[in-house]
Amino acid sequence: MEISPEEYREYVSERARKSPLIRDTALAFVIGGLICVLGQAVHNLWVRAGLSEQDAGTATSCSLVAFSALLTGLNLYSRLARYGGAGTLVPITGFANAVVSPAMDFKSEGMITGMAAKMFTVAGPVIVYGTLASVIYGVFLMLSR
C-alpha cells in the first residue's frame, strides 16, 4: 500500500497524542524552580558551614552535580524528567544528567570502550563550545580595557 505524503501527515496527525502544553509548561516551571530552591538551600548550608559566598557557590555547584549524577545512576532522574520535562534540563543538574546518562547506557561495553568513551557524547560539544566561547569573550574583555 502506497500513500502520499499528505495522506501520511493526515494519518499521523489523527493518531498523534496531543501534548497538554499548559500542564507541561507548568510542571517544567515547578520542577525547575524546586531544583533551584534545592540549590539555594544547599548554598545556605555551605555558608552556615563556614564557607565564603564565592566558595559556597562553587561547593553548591559541585553538590548539585554529584546529587544529579547519583540520581541518574539510580535511574531516578529520568523519572523526575518524565514529569518535569525541560525544568530538569535547564539547571546544572541537567548537564550532569547529560554526562552520566550515556555512560550508564553503555556500561555493559566496559569501563574504557563503554562508559569512558560515551560519557561525553552529549556533553562533549557543550564543553568544547562553552570553553571556546569563554576564551573569545575573555579576549574581547581583555582588549576592551
Could you walk me through the main structural features you see in this protein, from its secondary elements to its overall organization?
By secondary structure, the chain is mostly helical. It has a domain of 100 residues. The chain has 7 helices and no strands. Helix 2 packs across helix 3 and helix 3 runs parallel beside helix 5. The longest helix is centred in the first third of the chain and has 28 residues. The protein starts with a helix and ends with a helix. 16% of the residues are buried. The mean pLDDT is 84.
Summing up helix and strand content along with how strands pair, one would put the structural category as: mainly alpha
Order of helices and strands: HHHHHHH
Quantity of strands, as a count: 0
Please tell me how large the radius of gyration is.
21 Å
Could you estimate the helical fraction of the residues in percent? over 70%
Biggest sheet, in brief? none
Low-pLDDT segments, ≥5 res: none
- Number of separate helices: 7
